[in-house]
Every structure is written in C-alpha cells, then in structure tokens.
C-alpha cells in the first residue's frame, strides 16, 4: 500500500516543485493542499482545495489516512492580504493543522519548512548559528516572529505525540533563476539603500537544493532541527557588485525610513527585523544536516546569486550597461570628430 503524504502550500513555486518531484515516486500517494489553485503543473499530485485554518483539514487527513505531512504553507510576505491575514495563515493555520495531525491515527511523520529568520540579527551574533543556539536579538515583528511561534507549536506536537517523527528544516534565503522574494526584489532595485558602516553577510540556498533537502527528510526519517544552506556567504557589497546595482548609504538611524521606502515601493512588509538582517547579516552552520544526511548543496551562495543575476535586468553598473555607455560615448565622439 502506498504511503500517503500531504503537502501544504502547493500553490507556491517551491511547494509545487517539491510535491511534483515527490509524486514521481510511484510508491507514494501525494496530496497537495492550498487555499488557491496552483499556477504550476503538479504532475501526479492530487490537489485538494482547502484552507488549513479551517477544521475541514482534519477530515482530509482522516479520510485519506495521511501518514506524513509536509508543512510548507508559510507566508513570508503579507502581500495584498495584509499582516493580519499573514499571521492567521502562519500561526492559526499551523495550529489547526497540527491539531488535526495529532488526532489522526494514521499520522506518523511531520516535516516543517522553517527559516533562518528565527535567528534574528544583531551585532552580537556568532559567525554562524548552530541549531542549538538562540537568537541574540529576539525577533519582534513579522515573519520571523511567526516562524518562532510555529516552531514552538511543532515542538509541542512532538512532546504530545512521541511516536511521531518531527523534522524541522531552517532554510536560508532562496536565490536562483526565477526566485521572487523580498530579498531578491531588494537587490534588484535600480539604486539600493543600505546602512552606512555595515556590510551584511548573506547566505543563500538554491531552490533545487531546498527541494533535495526536503525530499531527503521526507523519504527517510531524521528527527530534530536542521540548518540548510550553502556553506559560503556573500557580503552585501559583493552581491550589489554582481547585480551591477549602485547603493546609497544612509545613517543607521534611518532604518525605519528605509523600511518605509521599501514598503512604498511595494517590495513587501519590511520590518525592523528585516532591516537588521540587511545591516548585520547572519549565517548558519550546516554541519549537522550534511553529516546526518550525507547531502550537501550543489550550489554555493555565490553561484546561486550568479544564476539570479544571469536572468535579471542588467544594473546601472553592470558590464553590459557600462559597455553600452562607452559605445554611445565613442559614437558621439566619432560624430564630433567627423563634424
């Protein structure tokens, strides 16, 4: 009999790609759940339109005898729905989903997609966070706060159902061709605002490596919490140089103004925690995941960023733009000489 795996959040790109890859295994019966129909091809995945905030999700889990739940319906940016709706999906939705899982006799495994955001960002941070470290500056707003709450509820389920294998993956910021996130939109600005005197450390994860990690922990049993990221870091200065984007430096006291500018530019619901991450940066130690699973990311942070740059519009300082400017000037000078 096929193992039944339920994946939430399949309307989003990463969730759809993961569920489709998982369903290629004919021994698995994969059910995709989301409140809106997926925009991406789900392959052999059976789609169920359902809201995890509604107790009806318990009926789906019971009726299909779901054995494994992969929770990916976590919203990092509120979009048009607003912060209150984002918190409902993240926190209330997770609570309802876990309550439904706890009651199901068939339920034996939970995989949760968490984030590097749980570590916050401060000038007192270590070079790299291990899974056993706590944030030096506790996240107070937005997605980071939601991620911390979600992890606390997940740990609670693990205590109430010790027979269930619980795995939490803290993923670094995704980066690569086609990635659309608050950070990728920030780096794509024509002129990037930044805090003077700081050069944030950025650590990325290519979507294909994120999917490989999720597939590994779903197919096999690894209990506990794991950091998943490329092993290297890229400084904000290096990232802007690769993007060909000029930057404008602002005093640290202007952090709230920078967040306001980014919100007005409709780049997401930027908070003080996110500005702190772009000021001090942060990175994770991935030794536990690589040692336990034997799986290491194929893309470095720099390679993931270079792939994103290759499909992005060239920045004002990119080699392409500079060559175009030099060609224009050369043509102008040649015209003047002939005239």
Automatic annotation (TrEMBL):
<dbReference type="InterPro" id="IPR050177">
    <property type="entry name" value="Lipid_A_modif_metabolic_enz"/>
</dbReference>
<dbReference type="InterPro" id="IPR001509">
    <property type="entry name" value="Epimerase_deHydtase"/>
</dbReference>
<keyword id="KW-0413">Isomerase</keyword>
<dbReference type="GO" id="GO:0016853">
    <property type="term" value="F:isomerase activity"/>
</dbReference>
<protein>
    <submittedName>
        <fullName>Putative nucleotide-sugar epimerase</fullName>
        <ecNumber>5.1.3.-</ecNumber>
    </submittedName>
</protein>
<feature type="domain" description="NAD-dependent epimerase/dehydratase">
    <location>
        <begin position="5"/>
        <end position="229"/>
    </location>
</feature>
<dbReference type="Pfam" id="PF01370">
    <property type="entry name" value="Epimerase"/>
</dbReference>
<dbReference type="InterPro" id="IPR036291">
    <property type="entry name" value="NAD(P)-bd_dom_sf"/>
</dbReference>
């Amino acid at each position: 009999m096929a193992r039944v795996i339920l994946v939430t959040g399949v309307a989003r790109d990463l969730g759809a790609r993961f569920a489709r890859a998982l369903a290629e295994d004919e021994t698995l019966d994969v059910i995709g759940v989301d409140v809106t129909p997926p925009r991406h091809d789900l392959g052999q995945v059976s789609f169920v339109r359902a809201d995890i905030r509604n107790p009806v999700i318990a009926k789906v889990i019971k009726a299909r005898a779901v054995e494994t739940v992969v929770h990916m319906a976590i919203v990092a940016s509120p979009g048009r729905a607003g912060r209150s709706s984002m918190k409902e999906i993240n926190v209330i939705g997770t609570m309802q989903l876990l309550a439904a899982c706890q009651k199901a006799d068939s339920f034996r495994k939970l995989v949760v997609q968490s984030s590097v955001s749980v570590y916050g960002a401060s000038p007192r941070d270590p070079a790299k966070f291990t899974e056993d470290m706590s944030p030096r500056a506790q996240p107070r707003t937005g997605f980071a706060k939601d991620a911390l709450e979600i992890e606390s509820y997940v740990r609670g389920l693990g205590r109430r159902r010790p027979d269930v294998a619980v795995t939490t993956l803290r993923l670094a910021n995704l980066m690569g061709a086609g990635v659309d996130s608050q950070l990728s939109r920030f780096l794509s600005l024509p002129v990037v605002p930044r805090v003077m005197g700081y050069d944030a450390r950025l650590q990325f994860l290519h979507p294909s490596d994120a999917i490989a990690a999720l597939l590994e922990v779903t197919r096999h049993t690894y209990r506990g919490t794991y950091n998943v990221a490329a092993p290297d870091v890229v400084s904000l200065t290096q990232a802007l140089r690769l993007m060909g984007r000029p930057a404008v430096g602002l005093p640290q006291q202007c952090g709230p103004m920078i967040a306001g500018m980014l919100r007005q530019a409709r780049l997401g619901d930027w908070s003080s925690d996110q500005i702190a991450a772009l000021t001090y940066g942060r990175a994770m130690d991935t030794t536990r995941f690589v040692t336990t699973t034997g799986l290491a990311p194929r893309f470095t942070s720099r390679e993931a960023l270079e792939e994103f740059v290759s499909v992005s519009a060239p920045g004002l300082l990119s080699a392409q733009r500079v060559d175009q400017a030099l060609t224009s000037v050369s043509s102008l000078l040649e015209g003047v000489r002939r005239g």
